[in-house]
């Protein structure tokens, strides 16, 4: 019932959110006296749009409407998608996003896995200071390939690490940053649905490493 309710609410809000974005952009182009207020409206509308889309994805995945379909996938193929997705963001923040060159394969749903990895990379960029680095590396083990997302960001307190994958969880230390606390929850759900898992190592003010373990391809 809750999943159906979320789906219904999301469907009903799509048109109002689209209208808010359109009229906000029109105001931004025609009204030059209240730009700060208009930018705030557009920013909050984007946040609402992101929240609704994330809730729809969660609802559909948890209800089985969307299922992952694993196939042989190259790490490089997924990393190219991530590079494309974050080109503008890293350029704006002057962050170096270093992606490894690898010929490793995994067995996963590439579309959903890019969504999961992208959520983690997005967090890494968000909490890393201008001019710093975010790296993505890959390494093969006996049954898994480990994909490390390493940042030079603010880090996570040890006692908070078990909480960060909770739905809507946001640390008080990042309250001033945009976000709704769904990205990591969704990432873990996607990876676990593919018989993988995520580990986190971090130290406050010394950055974080999110290690995503995915089953190796049968071709390996």
Which structural class matches the secondary elements?
alpha+beta
Q: How many strand units?
A: 7
* Biggest sheet character: 5 strands, mixed
Strand order of the largest sheet: 2-4-5-7-6
Taking the alpha carbons of the first and last residues, their distance comes to: 43 Å
Helicity level: 40-55%
Topology pattern, helix = H, strand = E: HHEHEEHEEHEE
Which strand-content bin applies to the residues? 15-25%
The global form is globular
- Spatial extent as radius of gyration: 19 Å
Number of separate helices: 5
> Average pLDDT, to the nearest integer?
85
Give the low-pLDDT segments: none
Walk me through what this model shows.
By secondary structure, the chain is of the alpha+beta class. Helix content is 48%, strand content 19%. It contains five helices and seven strands. β6 and β7 form a beta hairpin. The mean pLDDT is 85.
Task: Write a short abstract of this structure.
The chain has 220 residues and is of the alpha+beta class.
Q: How are the secondary structure elements laid out?
A:
Elements: H1 2-30, H2 35-63, E1 71-74, H3 75-93, E2 96-99, E3 105-108, H4 110-126, E4 133-140, E5 144-151, H5 183-193, E6 197-202, E7 208-215
Parallel strand pairs: 2-4
Antiparallel strand pairs: 1-3, 4-5, 5-7, 6-7
Helix pairs in contact: 1-2, 3-4, 4-5
Provide tags for this entry.
two-stranded antiparallel ribbon, globular, 5 helices, alpha+beta, 220 residues, 5-stranded mixed β-sheet, 48% helix, single chain
